[in-house]
Write a structure and sequence with these properties.
By secondary structure, this protein is α/β, with parallel strands linked by helices. The protein has two domains: about 180 residues, P-loop containing nucleotide triphosphate hydrolases (Rossmann fold, 3-Layer(aba) Sandwich); about 90 residues, no CATH class. Helices cover about 45% and strands about 15% of the residues. Strands 2-5-1-6-9 form a five-stranded parallel beta sheet, with helices on both faces. Strands 3-4 form a two-stranded antiparallel sheet. A two-stranded antiparallel ribbon has the order 7-8. A hairpin with a 4-residue loop joins strand 3 and strand 4. Helix 2 crosses helix 5 and helix 7 packs across helix 8. The longest helix is centred in the last third of the chain and has 24 residues. The protein is globular and about 60 Å long.
């Protein structure tokens, strides 16, 4: 099956954790000319900026527990002083805040997630992206629609990868991630070299620390509680919903591509 780059501006790929989103995202990046914008990678990028800055102070002092929010940005800057260049400070500050929430195991507020997302989305001119992991809440979805409207771009469709919980758990427990380049493998369906080495960079692949059955079931419930209402909100706002079967009888690149293409065709988008 041969496809050429499309006229899609932005696509959302959504679904339960472990449903099979990444193979569908790969179809959009390899065959439709889009680039992946992953919330996880965004957070890691900003946290790396903070870590690479060399700042060794206690960041907890910048958080007002009584008000459950950070102190004013200008006060943080005054405290840190000239150790961070002015031109780098905004990204450093976003990284500091992301690091605080993640390292303390706290929920990252939508306001910060939105800022981190927009910072990256703007680099592409707000188009040409397949969005992964955003939006996850109705509040984030509202922000995304407001942003695309202001920037005169759009979300062409939501591709919802459907899969049953038990199938997801079985598949996810066999998933392996390359800690160096981020490539994703599966011990049965897309095995790494010799069962343990990344085919792209040769690094030994790992099982993610949060890929346990208990944590998987927590994430599956979170999808039902937060993400499904978000999808419903977007559909009510006129974004076309395309359904793609995640648990395919034969799991090959061609079968995955076909699941995406047929869904787009059924929705009149191809």
């Amino acid at each position: 099956m041969s496809l050429s780059p499309s006229n899609f501006e932005n696509i959302l790929v959504m679904g339960k954790s472990g449903a099979g989103k990444q193979p569908r995202i790969d179809v959009f990046t390899s065959d439709f000319g889009l680039a992946q914008l992953s919330t996880g990678n965004i957070f890691r990028s900003f946290m790396k900026i903070f870590n690479d800055s060399g700042y060794k102070g206690d960041i907890n002092k910048f958080y007002n527990n009584a008000k459950n929010e950070f102190i004013e940005d200008k006060k943080i800057k005054e405290t840190i002083g000239s150790s961070i260049d002015d031109s780098d400070f905004d990204d450093f500050l976003l990284g500091l805040k992301a690091h605080y929430y993640v390292s303390n195991g706290k929920y990252v507020p939508d306001s910060l997630t939105n800022m981190l997302f927009e910072s990256y989305f703007s680099r592409s001119g707000y188009k040409g992206m397949v969005l992964d992991g955003y939006p996850r809440t109705v509040s984030q979805a509202e922000y995304l629609l407001k942003l695309t409207s202001e920037k005169e771009t759009k979300i062409d469709a939501i591709v919802l990868v459907e899969n049953e919980d038990d199938a997801i758990i079985k598949r996810t427990l066999g998933r392996r991630i390359c800690p160096s380049c981020g490539a994703v493998f599966h011990l049965e369906f897309k095995p790494p070299i010799d069962g343990k080495f990344c085919s792209k960079c040769g690094t030994e692949v790992i099982l993610r620390s949060d890929d346990t059955e208990e944590k998987l079931r927590t994430r599956l419930q979170e999808f039902r509680d937060k993400t499904m209402p978000t999808i419903q909100f977007l559909v009510e706002k006129g974004i076309p919903l395309v359904k793609a079967e995640g648990n395919l009888p034969v799991f090959t690149e061609e079968a995955v591509k076909l699941s995406v293409v047929e869904g787009l065709q059924r929705s009149g988008l191809l």
